[in-house]
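job 3f2a | input accepted
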Amino acid sequence: MADSRAASSRTFGRQIFLMLGAGAVVVIGLMAWAGGAWLSRSMSRQTDLLLVDAAERSSALVQQLMTDRAGVVELLGRSPAVVDAAIAGAREADRLGIGDTPIEQIEARFAQQRSLNGDPRVRAYLRDMLGATDVAEILVTESHGLNAVTTQRTSDFVQRDEEWWTEAFRDGLGRARASYDESARSISISQASAIREGASGLPVGVIKLVFGVKVIDAELSRAARASGVDVDLIDEGGRVVASSSSVERMQPLAGLTLGTDRSTRSIGSDSSAQRVALAATDDGRWYVAARKQERVTHEPIAEAKRALFAGAATLIVLIAVALLLVSRFVSRRVTAPASALALAAERVAKGDLASDVMAGVEDDEIGRLGRATASMVGELRRLVSAIRDSAQETAAMSAEITAGSEEMSAAASEMARTSCELSEQSADMAQTIQRTAMDAGTLKEIADRVSADALDGVKRNTRLRVLATENRARLDQSALALETLTAEAETSAAATAALALASEEIRAFVTLVRKIARQSKLLALNASMEAARAGEQGEGFAVVASEIRTLATTAHQAAERTERLVNDVLGRVEASRDSSKRTVATVSGVRLATREAVASFEQVEAAVVDAENWASATERAAADSSALVREMTDRLDDLARGTESFAAAMQQVAASSEEQSASTEEIAAAAAAQAISAERLSALVATFRLAEQRPSITAAGQRQSHATASLLLPAT
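job 3f2a | predicted structure (716 res):
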């Protein structure tokens, strides 16, 4: 038993301290990992800030240098000597007639000198500037793009086909361009500016300065030494123009792509990976790249992480040693006594109250727990004895209560069943009466609708009779009007016939007039012939014959017009005659139909009078039926209310009986449950084993046991 106690204590203590150790290791490991991640991010952020700062500072230096060089170019472009040289070159080109000559011919003609050989003093002045500044070459062209003055022999004589020349001549100042000189094996930066005449401000040529990159390399090296990074100047094509390191010039950086993204990025492979920050310069056309090897950045981070993890491992070892010492102390003072108390509690749980519990003498929590456990076992012995006696008495009383409750429950159940049957019958009767009342109400509604429909029928028949009377009167008036219309149509037909006869007489008269006109024409012809035969004596007859001819012609024309008019009138008279005939026939048919309609309306009026009488009788019958149904509905409603009151009363009686039966059943169930509980309690108490003599406990435990017994069982 002692071995099992020790094993259980060792197991419990080992579990606790293993969990504590594992938790400490996990927490310290997470803290170390989080610290390493934070340290890595912090140092990477510092590196990025350093790169961005170096790029921006170098960008400002390059921008200032490029601005100064642009100022120098513009200043030389406004110099009077340069302006005069450009104007003189243009005059020389015009004199030679080569201003508009094709470029190939000009290049072939000036292949040796490749310059117009302007003022030697200007050339000497420009060559003096080469030694005093970072300028490697100066080129002055006139307005046609031809070389006017050069400090050294150039590769081309005509420059107007070059992009830098057209840009400077158009915009005033061209952008900087980087190029590589194969012969000198050096990189140069050229910038061109328009040469403007002071009075007019018009461009008269272009001046181009070629600068070396030594000054820019020196500035970038100074910035690199100050920040500890490499700094490169990159043109718009991504090529390295100047650098603080020995990187290959006029070649793009490996892995670097120019775009809108200006954030810090990584370029290159794993072995040569670099962090790069870009900053725009030369008004956004060129860029300054600040870069640093990532392995150089990661070495301090790796060292800091190694130091951090070494500290974490040391801390874990110290925690493990401390946990081991604490585990031994806890096993001696807590785990072993707790195991003994657990064994005593297991025996009590199995019903063995005869075992002694050894109370500790320490004043800590384990000692107090031991004394309390010993006192609890003593009180349990006393409580089991009292419960055993009470359970026997409770079982006897429960048996008597159960018998009386069963008899009362049987009587209440019979009364409730009878009440339920009466209540159901009353409910069925009330439903039947309600349905009858509803049918009577429906019959009343039907009678009301029939009465309303009959009343509406009487009103409609009355309106129909009035309408028939009015229509018959109108038809009588229409018949009289048709009689008048018939007489007028017959009169119109007679007048039309008379007009036709008159037109025939007019036609005969017109025929006679035409005959007279023809005779008059013959008479006039004869008179003319006689007058011509008589000579001067017949002039009077000639005048008369002319007048007669004129009169005959007029009469003939009037007769023709009258004949056409008479024919038109006769056509219209004939159409009017046919229309009058059709009108007379139509009026006769309408008059006959009107007479028949009058007779039909007389029959309709009689039928309407009969229908009105029938509707009045129907209305009276419907009113009598409605009154009878209303009276029957009232009686059925009274009967239904009485039946419902009786059914409600019977339901209340049934409910009361059911409640009484339920209460009785609950009493019986409670008594039965009490009896069962008493038996179960007796069985449970019987499992406890009590010793002949009580175990010895401490004085404090005895006092506490007596106090608890006096509170729980005052009667004993």
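job 3f2a | Residues 1-9, 692-716 have pLDDT under 50 and may be disordered.
job 3f2a | closed
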